[in-house]
């Protein structure tokens, strides 16, 4: 199954209506999908943060300023890259934003090509990370589809145990072990213990019961 790839979305939050409109027009002309907000509270209320892309965020705004919006984004676990727009007087605030994880800050008035280049870098990286996370989720979902007994058998296979050893450990017939092993391999899309080990390693599972690191026994 091929993971669904979400197209990048560029979000712009700025109380300067002229700059908001011109930036949106510029980025749309470059082929990006763009949504705009004039204040941070409205953005946070409306935005689900599900799609990759980039957030262009003004530092100084009435109500919630850019740093407060960034703090809330961090609290929500957002990994969407943030580019701050700042007037000269708010550069110290922008530096604080970088220390909190922002990608960069651009001083107003923003050079159009600089904005396009930085948005492209951030959105492309965000989309690639989203695709990787989606692929990992799909692989982990395969393990979740296993029955408890299939997980037990696969866990013993990861320990490089033969069918007879697994049968003794689980109190099963060898033929039953072979059946569960074949079913598990089919669901996981693997054909050998080596491929099973590779898939489990990519998903962060251990051999013991196919538990993820830090999971509750």
TrEMBL record:
UniProt keywords, alphabetically: DNA-binding, Phosphoprotein
Domain HTH luxR-type: 139-204
InterPro entries xref list: CheY-like_superfamily, Sig_transdc_resp-reg_C-effctor, Sig_transdc_resp-reg_receiver, Tscrpt_reg_LuxR_C, WalR-like, WH-like_DNA-bd_sf
Signal peptide coordinates: none
Domain Response regulatory: 9-123
Residues recorded as bearing 4-aspartylphosphate in the entry: 58
GO biological process: phosphorelay signal transduction system; regulation of DNA-templated transcription
GO molecular function per UniProt: DNA binding
Pfam families: GerE, Response_reg
Protein name: Response regulator transcription factor
Annotated organism of origin: Sutterella seckii
Native organism taxonomy: Bacteria, Pseudomonadati, Pseudomonadota, Betaproteobacteria, Burkholderiales
């Amino acid at each position: 199954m091929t993971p669904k790839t979400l197209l990048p979305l560029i979000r712009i939050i700025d109380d300067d209506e002229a700059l908001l409109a011109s930036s949106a027009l510029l980025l749309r002309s470059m082929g990006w999908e763009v949504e705009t907000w004039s204040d941070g509270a409205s953005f946070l209320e409306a935005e689900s943060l599900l799609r990759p892309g980039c957030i262009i965020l003004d530092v100084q705004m009435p109500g919630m300023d850019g740093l407060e919006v960034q703090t809330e984004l961090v609290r929500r676990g957002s990994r969407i890259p943030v580019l701050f727009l700042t007037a000269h007087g708010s550069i110290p605030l922008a530096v604080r934003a970088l220390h909190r994880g922002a990608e960069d800050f651009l001083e107003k008035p923003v050079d159009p090509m600089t904005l396009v280049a930085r948005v492209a870098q951030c959105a492309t990286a965000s989309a690639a990370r989203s695709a990787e996370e989606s692929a990992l989720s799909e692989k982990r979902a395969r393990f979740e589809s296993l029955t408890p007994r299939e997980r037990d058998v696969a866990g013993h296979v990861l320990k490089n145990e033969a069918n007879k050893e697994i049968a003794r450990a689980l109190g099963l017939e060898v033929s039953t072990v072979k059946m569960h092993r074949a079913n598990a391999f089919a669901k996981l899309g693997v054909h050998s213990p080596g491929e099973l080990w590779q898939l489990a390693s990519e998903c962060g599972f251990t051999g013991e019961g196919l538990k993820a690191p830090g999971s509750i026994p």
